[in-house]
Design brief:
Elements (H helix, E strand, L loop, with lengths): L1 H15 L10 E6 L6 E6 L3 H19 L3 E2 L2 E2 H17 L12 H26 L17 E6 L4 H21 L4 H19 L5 H12 L4 E7 L5 E8 L2 E2 L17 E9 L7 E4 L5 H7 L13 E4 L8 E2 L1 H17 L5 E5 L6 H6 L8 H12 L13 H7 L1
Parallel strand pairs: 5-13, 11-12
Antiparallel strand pairs: 1-2, 3-4, 5-6, 6-7, 8-12, 9-10, 9-13, 10-11
Helix pairs in contact: 2-3, 3-4, 4-9, 5-6, 6-7
């Protein structure tokens, strides 16, 4: 392992010599999670100039321990630092780079490095403001963060969209009854009826249906909720990241090529800072044992069930969660810090908020076949974890926005 790491470091330095940059010193090496033995690609700083920069950030973090002045209950030095780090990430991942695929590695390295500082500072801010008893230390290298967990909600407000379309159709029907020559109302009814059929049947062979689903759910409306755990075992949602894009419809992934983003619980067992898609986190979708039980009658035999499901940057999706080029480095940073701390985090992927989601979705035409799957999903994961997460506290983004 020592020899392999040394060779990788030598190769990394030689490969990057053509484009000198202090962040090129974040060389990819291999580390092993103490909890599961899974191999995780991680990053470590070795450049003196870079260490000086991070020492400066450490000094700002240390100041938050001694200064107590607050604004709206938020420790000012720490909240100011978070705002600065948010801006730093935006300066690295500029608007021009938001849709860049295969961005320069030095830029990705900068984004991940800065996102580590941001993630730890945001957790510290959330913990301090809410007086949560959790382990967090942003001065140590690597930073210490509490256990993390993620929940992806693919179709928020599914029933609400359906009801809105149905109400609009009824409204235009009344207009048409009053005036049979109202061609605008007639056209709207036909258009909205197509949208309703797309919504409940999800006929993705139809381009308009795919576009409609993207517009209503995929683009920046589905989310990945990020949680931390205190020392007593309680979970708190401290941040929510909107996805750029995901593919598929409500329901489980059953085979390769079905374009489904799979629903269930999965380990986030490795990160790839050198992904072409602005860094990536691997969702261990290949671990099928428990998920096979959930699928029941839906479980196909003798088929290739696919793999390589990721949380990654801008690239669209054929089953992955596209977090965008600012969200991906943040998720990569969090998972990397967790793995370095010996903890393999997990993600629950749900079709919608499961408090009412099973009853809501399983009655729709074309979706009834998934009712048992969603019921098991709710019982095993939502009721045991998702429903117990404290979501009532202000997120770190809300704290900063209020200042």
């Amino acid at each position: 392992m020592v020899i392999l790491s040394a060779l990788l470091l030598v190769f990394s330095f030689s490969a990057q010599a053509a484009e000198p940059d202090i962040y090129d010193a974040y060389n990819a090496i291999f580390g092993v999670s103490s909890e599961s033995g899974n191999i995780a690609v991680q990053s470590v700083p070795s450049d003196p100039e870079l260490l000086q920069l991070t020492d400066g950030i450490d000094g700002q973090l240390e100041a938050t321990d001694t200064q107590s002045d607050c604004f709206n209950g938020v420790p000012s030095p720490l909240s100011d630092l978070v705002k600065q780090l948010v801006q730093d990430v935006k300066d690295i991942v500029t608007d021009d780079l938001m849709e860049e695929v295969d961005a320069p590695q030095s830029v990705v390295n900068k984004a991940i490095a800065k996102s580590k500082e941001l993630a730890c500072a945001e957790i510290m801010l959330f913990v301090q403001v809410n007086k949560i008893n959790a382990d967090v230390n942003c001065i140590k290298r690597p930073q210490v963060i509490p256990p993390i967990h993620m929940q992806a909600i693919k179709f928020p407000g599914l029933a609400e969209y359906k009801s809105q379309i149905e109400e609009q159709i009824e409204s235009y029907k009344k207009q048409l009854e009053q005036n049979p020559q109202n061609f605008t109302a007639d056209s709207k009814i036909r258009s909205l009826t197509k949208d309703l059929n797309c919504l409940v049947n999800a006929d993705f062979a139809n381009f308009n249906c795919r576009y409609m689903h993207e517009k209503m759910f995929s683009r920046g409306k589905s989310s990945v909720q990020i949680e931390i755990q205190d020392r007593s075992g309680k979970w708190y949602e401290y941040k929510k990241l909107q996805t750029d894009f995901f593919s598929g419809k409500p329901g489980p992934k059953t085979q390769k090529g079905d374009l489904q983003t799979p629903e269930a619980r999965f380990k986030l067992n490795s990160v790839n800072p050198t992904s072409n898609y602005f860094s990536a986190v691997h969702i261990n979708y290949e671990a099928w044992n428990e998920r096979n039980e959930l699928l029941g009658d839906l479980n196909p035999t003798g088929v290739n069930k696919g793999g390589d499901i990721m949380l990654h940057g801008h690239a669209g999706s054929v089953g992955c969660l596209d977090m965008g080029n600012r969200g991906a480095p943040y998720v990569t940073a969090l998972v990397d810090l967790s793995l370095k701390g010996g903890k393999v985090p997990e993600i629950d992927i749900f079709p919608t908020d499961m408090d009412s989601g099973v009853d809501e979705i399983s009655t729709w035409p074309g979706y009834q076949q998934n009712a048992k799957f969603w019921a098991e999903l709710k019982k095993r994961y939502w009721e045991k974890h998702g429903a117990k997460v404290n979501r009532s506290l202000k997120s770190v983004d809300e704290m900063i926005e209020e200042e």
